[in-house]
Amino acid sequence: MEIIIQPTPEAASAIAARMIARLLREKSDAVLGLATGSTPLLLYRELVRRKLDWSRVTTFNLDEYVGLAPDHPASYHCFMWENLFRQVNIAESNVHIPDGLAGDIPGFCQRYEEQIRAAGGIDWQLLGIGTDGHIGFNEPTSSLASRTRIKTLTQQTRADNARFFGGETAVPQHVITMGIGTIMEARQVVLMAFGQDKARAVAEAVEGPITAMNPASILQLHPVARIVLDEPAATLLRKADYYRWVYDNKPDWQKA
Ligand code: PGA
Q1: For residue 65, what are the CA distances in angstroms to 42, 71, 115, 204, 212?
Q2: Which of 28, 56, 193, 204 could disulfide-link to 233, CB 3.0 to 4.6 Å?
């Protein structure tokens, strides 16, 4: 795991944007795994500003709320088109987001997995982290080997996301999410976290035991996982000074 601590969300997002820009230069038909929520907003803004060529890029989003139509303002379809896809030259047919209105949810989830495989697998997976340690919507106690499937949100996550719905009761109870096993198959994974509210989940994921109680902790087993944080999100890391030292002293060619 590489822990990258930056002074601000802007600086952290610029690093993630550079990683994607480099990947798209090297592999113009890269497959990106994308995330929603507050955390990736600055990254998406920076990607738009960079005017990269998305014409051959394929994307798979982590999750979607069950029961929300793609044009619902709080749907992740809406989020992605508004904050990224509409502003870059991606082909609509290359965009994949779980279908919140799927009639046969297990069948849909199986096809989503097949589509990821058929695309050659995910090259670069972006993740946020919930205050309860979730990645995608894999809540605590999710199987660490899970595949794309339906999940029930915790009360904590529904409370955290109430701001997008104008109240907790309006937050759907169920979601479709890529599984932890699905996420772990991506060739590179980047988890971003900003703000003091994420500090405990981040510290448990990075320095705690690998446990389904903090799904992000599975990233300790990923061969190429980067954790990109702002200072507040890093406040509970015991070895923060060491991570900073390592990053500052990397050979230039190895720096993200
Ligand atoms: P946030 O959500 O970026 O809105 O904090 C992250 C997550 O729940 O994975």
Answers
A1: 23, 12, 20, 27, 22
A2: 193
